[in-house]
Hints:
Blueprint: H1 3-12, H2 41-48, H3 52-86, H4 89-114, H5 126-153, E1 161-164, E2 169-176, E3 180-185, E4 190-194, H6 195-199, E5 203-205, E6 213-221, H7 227-239, E7 251-253, E8 256-258, E9 263-269, E10 274-282, H8 288-302
Antiparallel strand pairs: 1-2, 1-5, 2-3, 3-4, 6-10, 7-8, 9-10
Amino acid sequence: MVAWLRALAALTSQTATPGGDGATGTATAGGTPSGPGWVPPGVRTFVNGLPTPVIQLFQVVVIIVLAYAVSQLLIQLLGRRIARRFRRPSLTRTALRGIRLVVFIFATLTIMGIYDYSLSDLTLSVAVFSAVVGVILAPIVGSIISGVFLLADQPYEIGDMIELAERDQRGFVEDITLRYTKIFTLDNTFLVIPNGAMRERDVVNYSAEDTRTRQALDVLVTYESDVPRARELLEQAAREVDGVVSGGPQIRVGAARYPAKPTCYIDNFADHGINLRLRYWIEEPYWLLRVRSKIQTAFAEAIADEDVVIAYPHQHHVFDETSGEMQVAVGDRNPDGDAARADPRVPDGESAVDGGTEPDEDELP
Length: 365
C-alpha cells in the first residue's frame, strides 16, 4: 500500500555508502550526491542538506495533495454511474462521501508509515474504548445509526418540502448526511438537526409522492345569509385563483378518491353562525398562505353585493314576562356636570340622597 510512497521517500532520504564522504546521504565515489538523472545537481544538493522532519513534512503535503486529486478524479469518473445506480440524491452523496473517506483513510495510513507508526500503536484497551464511546462518541454514533435508518426508510429526500409539526415550520431538505439533516426554511434560514432528533419528530412531507396538496378554509356566515349562494361564491373564488386545481378527474390518495375541484360543505351550526368549510387542491405546496389569502380576498369582494354576511361573535339579551323588572330614570345634569338622580316620588328641590323622605310601602309600584 505504501510502496509507491517509499519510492518517493527514497528520492529525498539518503544513506551513506563506502565510497561516500561520511555525511548522511547517498554519494558516488567522487563525493557527488546521487539521485535520479532528471534531477538537477543543485536540487539534489539542496534536498540532501534538508533535515529529516522537513523531508517528512514535505512527504505529508504531497500525500494530502495526491489524495485530494485522486478522490476528485474518482468522483468524476464514478459520479454518474453511482447516480444512475441509486437514483436518489441522498444515497448518491453518501456514496461519494464514502469514496472520498476511503481515499483519505489510505492517505492517513501512508502518513503513519512515514513516521513509523502502525495500527497496533493506536490500539486502545477495550475498557478505555468503551468509555470513550459511551461518554463522547455515543451521540455521534447514535446520529450515524439514525442516518442509516433515514436513508433506508426514505421518509424524505433532498429537494422535498417538509414541515416540522411541533414547530409549525416548513422548509426544503437541502442535504442528508449520516449525522444530520440540513433544512433550508422558507424564511431563508438553515436548520441543522441531528438525525437522532429527526427520527423522533413528526415530519410532514408535502412533495414526496405527489406535489398536489389539499387544504381547508373555514368561513363563518350568519344564519340570515343566503347559505347556498355563499357556498357557490366560495367555490368560485377558489377556482379563479392561480395554483388551485379547478377541476378534472378525481384525485386518488391510497384507496380513497377526492374531487379535484374546490368543494364547499356546511361544517356545523355554530353559536354565532353557520361554518362553511372549503376544501381545495393546490398544484404546488410552496405558496400555501399566499393561495389562501387570495381565496379569502376574492370571496370578500364577491359577497360585497350579495346577501351574505360574515358572522362575528355577538350576544342577544331577551327580556320576557319571566325576566322581572328594572327601573331606569333619566334626570337633568346639575351645574357641576353630575347627573342628578331623578325620582318622581321626591319633591322638587330635595334629593333622594340628602334629606329626601322615604316613600310608604303602599306607594311603591
